[in-house]
Design goal:
single chain, about 325 residues, alpha/beta, Rossmann fold, 2 domains, glycosyltransferase, ADP-heptose-lipopolysaccharide heptosyltransferase activity, Glyco_trans_9, transferase, Glycosyl transferase
Length: about 325
């Protein structure tokens, strides 16, 4: 059971892929959010139950009807939110596996009868892999993801890549405005890349923040950018990310989507610890001011604070300079 969000669902896919590669006969049911389902809906041999949290109690009743008469060998309770915990009560399972005590929030521990092993300073993806460990699923290396797309979406992506040539994706908008870098600085990086002969495209979702951020960047660049913001399905976006030479993004879903298809990511972080939430395969490429921000606010270094401690403030991302990002981008333009 993992309802949201896009980035976390990407991490969960790695765990599901591990189970499928090692236990080929396993029957997997995934309770998932409505939007997130659109990304993973074609995964083979997975039965999906969509939980539309906007429907409130009706969503719980729908879930109850879907699993009526079933008893699962194990329920992996991979979301600590109280809403998910309460909904999980309608699922009958021999083992109800939850997070360890240190990661249990919102009374999560009350709904589990077994807990994963405690781990210190683990990336969210590794935290999800703890559930596979608890089941006894053999470990697989390297971590892999299986997110199929329809042939027409794969073809669409190839056509865009052919038309664009070598390109970098900037996916500038996180779910909260304070986690976004300044549009003028994104524009400076876009100019830097395009002056090196590499195209830059903008991507993002259909929300107002995504649209406003993209428009602000386009208003500041020297050369026009092709803008796919709000114009793609999740599978089309995945294909744009797959064919990209590089992705630049803050703490947002497309950064993790890019990781699932093997595209390098330069992540921009100030509020959350990238060791925990950064693009899993590209932690060495992260541009982060988190350590200095959280130590200034909390009076302790990050490794002396509770895992997952966040820095707060609407201007923290301003501490990331254009030159800091250029240093991470430059090797890809050589």
């Amino acid at each position: 059971m993992r309802l949201s969000a896009i980035g976390d669902v990407c991490h969960a896919v790695a765990m599901v892929t591990r189970i499928q590669s090692q236990w080929r006969d396993a029957e997997i049911t995934w309770v998932i959010g409505k939007v997130e389902y659109q990304l993973v809906k074609l995964m083979p041999n997975v039965r999906f139950i969509i939980f539309d949290k906007s429907k409130g109690k009706a969503a719980v009743e729908s879930l109850k009807a879907e699993v009526a008469g079933e008893t699962f060998d194990a329920l992996l309770m991979m979301q600590v939110a109280l809403r998910a915990n309460l909904a999980s009560r309608v699922i009958k399972a021999k083992q109800r596996i939850g997070f360890d005590w240190s990661r249990s929030k919102e009374l999560h521990w009350l709904f589990a009868n077994k807990r994963v092993a405690a781990t210190k300073h683990a990336h969210v993806l590794k935290g999800f892999m703890d559930f596979a460990d608890a089941l006894g699923v053999p470990e697989t290396k390297p971590v892999s993801w299986n997110i199929p797309v329809a042939p027409e979406d794969a073809q669409w992506g190839e056509e865009q890549a052919k038309a664009l040539g070598k390109y970098v994706v900037i996916s500038p908008a996180a779910s909260k405005a304070e986690r976004n870098w300044l549009p003028q600085r994104y524009a400076s990086i876009a100019d830097y890349i395009q002056e090196a002969g590499v195209a830059v495209i903008l991507c993002g979702g259909p929300g107002d923040l995504d649209r406003k951020t993209a428009d602000a960047i386009k208003a500041s660049v020297k050369q026009p950018l092709q803008d796919f913001t709000g114009q793609t399905t999740l599978h089309q976006l995945l294909m744009l990310l797959k064919h990209a030479h590089l992705v630049i993004a803050p703490d947002t879903g497309p950064a993790h989507m890019a990781t699932t298809v093997g595209t390098p990511v330069v992540g921009l972080y100030a509020h959350s610890n990238p060791r925990r939430t950064g693009p899993y395969n590209d932690l060495d490429r992260v541009v982060s001011v988190y350590d200095e921000c959280v130590e200034k606010q909390k009076g302790k270094p990050w490794d002396a604070l509770p895992w997952g401690a966040r820095a707060k403030g609407s201007q923290l991302m301003e501490k990331i300079t254009v030159d800091m990002v250029k240093q991470k981008v430059a090797p890809f333009l050589a």
